[in-house]
Amino acid sequence: MDVKTYRARSVQEALALVRQDLGPNAAVLHTREVRRGLRRWFGGRSEIEVVASAQVNVPSRLEPRRADVGTSPSGSASHSAGAADTGPLLEPVRAVVPRPASGPLGETAKRPSPDDSTSDLRWQLDQLQSMVEQLYRQRESQPLREMPETLFRLFTDLLDAEFTDELARDLVDRVRGSSAPEDLDDFDMLRARLLRMLEEEIRATGPIDVVPQSRRLVALVGPTGVGKTTTIAKLAADFHLRQQRRVGLITVDTYRIAAVEQLRTYADIIDLPMEVVATPREMRAAVERMSNLELILMDTAGRSPRDEVKIQELKVMLAEAQADEVHLVLSSVASGASLKKTAQRFAEVGATAIIFTKLDEATGLGNLLPLLRSCNLPLSYLTNGQNVPDDIEPADPRKLARMLLGRPESVRPSPRIAN
Q1: How far apart are the C-alpha atoms of 138 and 136, rounded to whole Å?
Q2: Which letter does DSSP use for residue 77 in this model?
Q3: Homologous superfamily of 216-410 in CATH?
Q4: Within the chain, how many helices (H) and strands (E) appear?
Q5: pLDDT attached to residue 114
Q6: Radius of gyration, alpha carbons of the chain
Q7: What per-residue confidence (pLDDT) applies to 81?
Q8: How far is residue 97's CA from residue 86's CA, in Å, rounded to a whole number?
Q9: Inter-residue contact 127 to 108 (CB < 8 Å)
Q10: DSSP state of 350
């Protein structure tokens, strides 16, 4: 079968080439829009590619709408290059602009022989699927066409910081909507505007406020492996060694012997009292024995957000301790969907703030913004390493906004976390 491919700036020009080369009765097998250059989705030059043959009779997929459309011997309307200048029949071709089905190496798939009805039907289904995929890509890329270079740079920066495509588009559209046309050439101004937008979406509660001559009990909760025990050690060392506060530790993480020994080691090094609690009654007694302290930090066992029984046990233990603050500890390397689901479940135990850990391990922090948008909890602390008592600092919206955009120089250990 003689199949040829033609490219031109428009469908009409491409069909004119087909008629000139193959004659007026040539059949158009499929068409697609081709964009050239690295920025093919953002205003690059486009061409229309038409694949045609003079040896194939392709039935039309459209109902006849003009009296001058010819019919095939079987009675169905034929879609040929010779009928291209009738006008209305070409509108669906320009709107759909399907891409041809491809083989394993990307080559254009050829239509099977009409005698092979099963393969021919499969070929047509593949073509319809390719049309749907092309329409989806056109719809998704449409808002960013003709994008100025400055906004394109912001968009790619957001993608590099692991923002989702949808979220990056939303932020870039907001920057564009809030900017005058003459401002779109100033990248620094647009980036500063984006930083302010991110900063406005970050709520921070500040560090734990310890009042002299009064007791404050702060519990850390969260899933397994997020760094609760290490974070408690950092807080305890700072408040006791640097701020000279009377601090005590309570752990209910009796499920992991290593966790108890780890916290006990920290308590011995910092010279802090520590209680190991397994039941609500033991919790009441432990809190009473520490009534003379200014700050009690409580370490809890990691709970799966899907384990309803363990979540309820944790809720009972926190109620017995009468915790003043409950900080939900989340790892910044978790996916955005996982963070949102975890925050929703731990809201049931009375979480009052969020601590993000392992910022130094994350390749991008764009996954944090969906949680910050959907969750009503403010941020209290950020941690970015294993050093005790360093590598922790109170959450600062301006600094975190810069970190969200992927500035590695912003992720540095804080010399101190005191007020």
Answers
A1: 5
A2: B
A3: P-loop containing nucleotide triphosphate hydrolases (3.40.50.300)
A4: 13, 11
A5: 56
A6: 32
A7: 45
A8: 18
A9: no
A10: T
Q: 255: which 2 tokens?
A: 């499920």
β-pairing, 46-53 vs 247-251, is: unpaired
Average pLDDT along the chain: 77
> Residue ranges of the chain with pLDDT lower than 50?
38-42, 60-108, 139, 141-145, 408-419
Coil/strand/helix, residue 327: strand
Q: State the first-to-last Cα distance of the chain, in angstroms, to the nearest integer.
A: 80
pTM: 0.62
What is the dihedral sign for C-alpha 177, 183, 185, 191?
negative
89, 65 contact by CB (below 8 A): yes
What's the CA gap between 140 and 18, in Å, rounded?
31
- Residue 323, both tokens: 């915790």
Q: What are the CA-CA distances from residue 41 to residues 9, 33, 98, 383 (Å)?
A: 17, 11, 16, 39
Nearest to 259 by CA among 241, 234, 233: 233
Per domain, the residue ranges of the chain are: 3-142, 147-200, 216-410
What local confidence, expressed as pLDDT, does residue 202 receive?
Answer: 93
Between strands 379-383 and 46-53, the pairing is: unpaired
In this predicted structure, what is the pLDDT of residue 129? 67
Q: What is the dihedral of CA 405, 410, 416, 417, to 10 degrees?
A: 0
pLDDT of 239: 93
State the number of CA atoms in the 13 A half-sphere of 296 facing the CB. Answer: 25
- Residue 362 to residues 32, 61, 161, 332, 368, Cα–Cα distance (Å): 40, 51, 10, 6, 11
Helix (H) or strand (E) holding 381: strand 379-383
